[in-house]
## 1
Amino acid sequence: MHPYLIPLLTFAAAAAVFTITPGLDTAMTLRTATTSGWKAGLAAVTGICLGLGIWGLAAAFGLTALLAASETAFTVVKWAGALYLAWLGIGLILHPRASLGIAETVPVHDDARAAFRRGLLTNLLNPKVGIFYMTFMPQFIPPHVNVKEFSLLLTAIQAILSFSWLALLVALTVPLGRFLSSPVVVRRMDRLTGGIFIAFSLKLALSRRA
């Protein structure tokens, strides 16, 4: 058996549990897929996974050590993320959509770009993701390996697991689109998601470095 197989399988199992645990990424994926369709849903998933990749890349090169070591750096990123989530949440509560906008003249690719941007920024502005990579991944890096290369491999595994799970959620959500496209359902989902985003904003604002 390859000496690196056990660490990789162990990390994959732990990362899978982390991935399927409902959180902000899950909430954003479900909301986007049900209100804007599968293309926008997959765009949001792509943005989320790109954010994971960037955090993993930063961790591999030791950049996220700054967040772990510097209270100021952590606080700046933390509050930027908290304010961004609060802004998204308040907007959804105060101005919920009444329909999926199918009859709107806005091109579909604009919705996909916006969904991609939201997924990416929501992930990048959450310093807890960086701290997770900095404290979680080293536990699965065996001795006498190239730390950067192995960290990037673990990051790729995490990104693949996240994309697979979130894409599955999109696939399972789309068949419900006709029911969920009801104006009442859309408004309630927007407001519910807005409340979830605000809750995550408060949680992030109150978080402290590990």
## 2
Amino acid sequence: MVQKAKILLVDDRPENLLALEAILSALDQTLVRASSGEEALKALLTDDFAVILLDVQMPGMDGFETAAHIKRRERTRDIPIIFLTAINHGPHHTFRGYAAGAVDYISKPFDPWVLRAKVSVFVDLYMKNCQLKEQAALLRLQLEGGGKGPVGDGKESAGLLAELSARLAAVEEQAEALSKQLDDESADAAAVATAAHLERKLTGLRRALDALEPGTGSASAVPSQG
């Protein structure tokens, strides 16, 4: 059963959080509220998130400071951040947002469809990465208990290898479709780069899986997956 991705919504105004929930509910993912930067950082200690929507202007710890803390943590540094702001102080203000680690910077009021589409891309990328990690974990388990041959002996090993290959093929097909979607649209550079990184990891995992086929080499030659 595929788990839903979690999306972190950070805003000190309850009405803004309600509006974000209404816009993003159609994605059918888990929406997590945080009413301050401190509350957001606490949520990030225990849960994994596909993307963070972060209000810039908040009392106490503002969006820029919150983003800086997020990017300093090893666990959370790669989570995409979309800044939301009700003001526009020009290019310098926008540059500060990108310098803080944001993948996008959107001024309020924003187009609900555009925001939903942007968030959807990062949710898709997150889900593909989760699937990829699952395939890599299964592959490592097979290598650790593989026995004498590249993937062990008997029908059980052959069946597991076939299952891994089929599941990886499904992820490859979805990743290819996502990459085509990004090519067709004026997608964010960060989303395109993340998709390219995912494809490289998929290629490496496919090569590792192919190396486990009987007669193609030993399990020790399989590259590790980061």
